[in-house]
Amino acid sequence: MTQSAIPTSSASVPPITEEDIAEFLQQTPGFFERHAEVLASVTFTSPHGHRAVSLQERQAEMLREKIKALEQRVMEMVRNGNENGHIAQKIHQWSRELAAVKDPHALPGAVTEGLRRLFDVPQTALRVWDAAAPFQNAALGGASPDARAFASSLTAPFCGANLGFEPTAWLPDASQVQSLALLPLREGALDGETPAFGLLVLGSPDTQRFTAEMGTDFLVRIAELASGALSRLR
Fold first, then answer.
1. Which CATH architecture does the domain made up of 73-233 adopt?
2. What is the pLDDT of residues 102-117, one digit of tens each?
């Protein structure tokens, strides 16, 4: 007797995956309305105490965690806003002091001393080259051609670790400086193409005071305000 054909085994059918189940539930939003008892019987392990909780309780925990994270972000934004407000006020005060300087010879000292006092910058230095003859002593010249070319190449403040740049040696105690900011001085906008006529150096023993990742909006303002004030020496 001839043997009949054997049906295809069910083992050849691909197993249902978690992704299949998730897609089915997404495509069938009425499933839990028709089977509310399934929702009621679903339990999860709580991350707080490893106890079993219902789906609703787990959702409430997740919502509380999201709210807490949002509250922390809001508090951080408020804190940053307050800090930025204080910095803006200090820049305003520093600008007023520079504008009140009547003798151009006193401008370099007003720039650097004001930054140390108002912004708690431990060390500052300044060089201005190609100053007019009456102000050459006050301008604190002495920058090498390489330093001048480096300053002109900057279209934004340089912030980072002390890598031994020549301008670092202008600081009172360069051996103690771990991070620094180099601010080019030029006529017009800081990101302009005109050659720099000076360089402002800010140094700190704190490695995190000036970093490559920090925002530089306020440093740009400081550089442009210093440039405007010190242009009187040219």
1. 2-Layer Sandwich (3.30)
2. 999 999 999 999 999 9
